[in-house]
Amino acid sequence: xxxxxxxxxxxxxxxxxxxxxxxxxxxxxxxxxxxxxxxxxxxxxxxxxxxxxxxxxxxxxxxxxxxxxxxxxxxxxxxxxxxxxxxxxxxxxxxxxxxxxxxxxxxxxxxxxxxxxxxxxxxxxxxxxxxxxxxxxxxxxxxxxxxxxxxxxxxxxxxxxxxxxxxxxxxxxxxxxxxxxxxxxxxxxxxxxxxxxxxxxxxxxxxxxxxxxxxxxxxxxxxxxxxxxxxxxxxxxxxxxxxxxxxxxxxxxxxxxxxxxxxxxxxxxxxxxxxxxxxxxxxxxxxxxxxxxxxxxxxxxxxxxxxxxxxxxxxxxxxxxxxxxxxxxxxxxxxxxxxxxxxxxxxxxxxxxxxxxxxxxxxxxxxxxxxxxxxxxxxx
Length: 380
Prior knowledge:
Blueprint: E1 4-11, E2 21-28, E3 33-37, H1 44-52, E4 59-64, E5 67-71, E6 76-77, E7 85-88, H2 100-110, H3 115-128, H4 144-157, E8 162-166, H5 174-191, E9 194-199, H6 202-208, E10 211-216, E11 219-224, H7 226-231, H8 236-241, E12 248-251, H9 259-265, E13 274-279, E14 284-285, E15 293-305, E16 310-316, E17 319-325, E18 336-341, E19 346-350, E20 355-356
Parallel strand pairs: 3-9, 3-10, 7-8, 8-9
Antiparallel strand pairs: 1-2, 1-4, 4-5, 5-6, 10-11, 12-13, 13-19, 14-18, 15-16, 15-18, 16-17, 19-20
Helix pairs in contact: 2-3, 2-4, 3-4, 4-5
Domain ABC transporter: 4-242
Main location: membrane
Subcellular location: Cell inner membrane
């Protein structure tokens, strides 16, 4: 199966204004499960539709393997049906007057495969997707999850080299979404098909993808493995978009009302251009450690159980801090609780929202909290 390469891809719907997709450079490797992730209007579905051939480029080039499928410069455009890919829509798009078996068989009939070969392929894919018992039913007789499996089966039956999924789980309830996430991972492992999956659900992307491409305002923000996206966000947008509860973002300087917490972390002088520091809720600890940075005594405002974990909201004057834990809290709302942060859990950003790496700030002047014998920001 081929790689998909997007080079300087741009899509404009109007002659003036912000492009829907702006100068996108992205490679989706053979056999990869790539999630295009971002808020509504970020350009992720438009990107998918351009790969599928449902939208023409305004500029740039798309290759599938060594074959150019869309290029404004060379005047090349390969129609969708010749790109050897399958597209699963959010609405499933099943034929209501056809049984499950006939829906799955539809693409094979268009390709004029012999009946014995068609039947073998349909039976194989129904068995793998566990929908063999529904072969004679019609879509209206199926649940949402079952319809989703049929839509996937119809695409997999024609053996596409690439499978494109446009928010296919958004119509399902929470239980079915969880089941279908596991199903998609199993299918990817079993078939080895290259999958491009569009979603605005960060947890869907984190649990499904081998690689995530985060988009905002039509531009690519970061590409990487889920752990890298979460633990090393390249900019403030990615840091704040990924994570639930969201990252605690503390402004440094220039805001007297927030100076208290910032001054506990750093001196009043700018730190190599840093204007904000982010701390993930789970990277805050309520236990003092040798290398922990004390943040101060906070008032516990509320405890929100989420089933197996708890989110605790703290306040210090006008400042708010969220802490996530898998340990049952012993404190009660109204109690004063000492909070700490681990140095390696601090994420620095400059005025443009770009990440500042630790090696860029080793020479910076950092406040020395009581009991800390080295710069609070930097791990040994």
